[in-house]
Automatic annotation (TrEMBL), chain A:
It is a multi-pass membrane protein. It is found in: Cell membrane. One of its GO terms (cellular component) is plasma membrane. Keywords: Cell membrane, Membrane, Transmembrane, Transmembrane helix. It comes from Catellatospora methionotrophica. CDD domains: TM_PBP1_LivM_like. One of its GO terms (molecular function) is branched-chain amino acid transmembrane transporter activity. The chain crosses the membrane at residues 37-54, 113-135, 142-161, 191-210, 231-251, 257-276, 288-305, 317-338. This is Urea ABC transporter permease subunit UrtC. NCBIfam families: urea_trans_UrtC. PANTHER family: HIGH-AFFINITY BRANCHED-CHAIN AMINO ACID TRANSPORT SYSTEM PERMEASE, SLR1201 PROTEIN. It holds the Pfam family BPD_transp_2.
UniProtKB/TrEMBL annotation, chain B:
InterPro entries: AAA+_ATPase (IPR003593), ABC_AA/LPS_Transport (IPR051120), ABC_transporter-like_ATP-bd (IPR003439), ABC_transptr_urea_ATP-bd_UrtD (IPR017781), BCA_ABC_TP_C (IPR032823), P-loop_NTPase (IPR027417). This is ABC transporter ATP-binding protein. Gene3D superfamilies: P-loop containing nucleotide triphosphate hydrolases. Keywords: ATP-binding, Nucleotide-binding, Transport. GO terms for molecular function: ATP binding; ATP hydrolysis activity. Residues 8-244 form the ABC transporter domain. The keyword rRNA-binding does not apply.
Amino acid sequence: MTNLSPRTRVWLGFGLGAVVLFAAAPALLTDFRLSLLAKYLCFAIVAVGIGLAWGRGGLLTLGQGVFFGLGGYAMAMHLKLADAGEGNMPDFMELYGQLDELPAWWAPFANPVFALAATVLLPMLVAFGLGSLVFRRRVRGAYFAILSQALAAAMVILLIGQQGTTGGTNGLTDIEGFFGYDLDDPVNQRMVYFIIAGVLLALLALTRQLMHSRYGELLVAVRDSENRVRFLGYNPANVKLVAYVVAAGMAGLAGALFVPAVGIISPALIGIVPSIEFVIGVAVGGRAALLGPVLGAVAVAWAKTALSERFPGTWTYLQGAMFVLVVAFLPGGLASLWGMVRRRRERQPDATVPADGDRVLVQEVAA
Amino acid sequence: MSETAGGLRIRGLRVVFDGFVAVDGVDLDVEPGDIRFLIGPNGAGKTTLVDAVTGLVKATGSARFGEQELLGRDVHRVARLGVGRTFQTAALFEELTVLQNLDIAAGAGRSPWTMLRRRGTVPDDVAQALETIGLTGRRDVLAGTLAHGQKQWLEIGMLLVQNARLLLLDEPVAGMSHEEREATGELLGKVASDRTVVVIEHDMDFLRRFARTVTVLHAGKVLSEGTVAQVQADPKVQEVYLGHTADAVAQGAEA
């Protein structure tokens, strides 16, 4: 295992991931469990982005719910309009009866191309605007985290306040179709699962490329010593901005896929608490590794379902305890366990330094 | 103007922190190819002067490098004009390898397309810098695990690949062994042939061996300037050092 070249190991890793997601999981899990897994994989997609922005870039993105929500609402608006049929208003608008016609800002979402593009581009645009302002003013660390949180809170308040056009606290619910496919049909649910799994693998490949590119090295450099980077002639604000915008796009896409998988998007799914939960999954899994965030997000989401089925009410405490334990005793997350075991084993014969610089990253990634 | 083309030319530089004048009207000319040592007691304003020139702190007056005014620009813009600096405590990217550190230093002008790909081969200038600083054999080691002296050399190597024409080094030999100092001094000599070098240093022995010219700062002002012998013979300098920090000279004598 240790004598495989990094390249082979990466292909093996992706192959294994594909087998697990596309063959093993659908064969072994019931339709109900598979649809739960689809939901977890959406969280995993958000986590991949957080891993890049936080793990590699040091940006504690505590407000990814905003981007998840933007993507989710963009998708749900289109699906609601498609469900209602041409020229009709979505059911909840008819129900509240305050509006005579569709609001102007809803109209473009009837176009599937516009809506799909918006699920990714809208979050990226918002992240670009916010990031440009914040990073150039050198807002960092806890201040950046608090600002992200505030944005998540503001978005929830806005959505709840505009009940007539956003569905308020209920959100956008009862989504029946997905581009002409009936979401009640288990076959179509499976298709949605496969799309999500495919997107996750594709984004992992993209993120891996980013992490191993020169940009990825520069991002780590900015994380560890922003001022030094500045003295080398780079503007760190731009370096961070790229990671932040990419992470936002991933969260938006995850939100968009979450809607057909679960059939609902609501303020409770995108506010402060879910935003923090995204980060907890990443921290538990290991934020700087490629797969750490994915495994952490799935594990935490799965534990939440499993434990709240059996011991409702205790989950919140368990989650908090888990977070504290990881931060205190395993700052590299579960992904760093593998590396620790490995290093201990390697130390005995010969404590050699990695022959190739990338090996260090690869070890982390392979973990 | 012609004699300072490519050199550093500072006029009336003034830095004030909340009413405290750290640098008080300094004029300084450093020619290309010179190795200028900047000395002075603690609080003389040496590091502040470098901070001002590199854009880290606000200053009034003028600091020109070649044709370009440096004051009033952002740190990264000053760096792109060919001004590089090191810090008292080595500021490397410790989680990255020696090669990665140098590659980042060499890359401020890279296109987005290049940035998004992996590094294929080691760029020529990086390979050359590795050779110059004597770290070719350790290029894949994490920078954080280097010995103290090697860290400082790596910093200098980063300035070389960054293509800095003006090198501002803040106490490059502090904490180094005798052999490391010698090696650093020789490195400075090699590097200075086609660059302008300014070194802040407390070590008098190192200064005597490697300085070409010396400027003494005291309380934010230039106290004396000239060759090592001229400065050492200057009674004002002797007074400042013997009067306040006698150990600096004494220490140098025995080091």
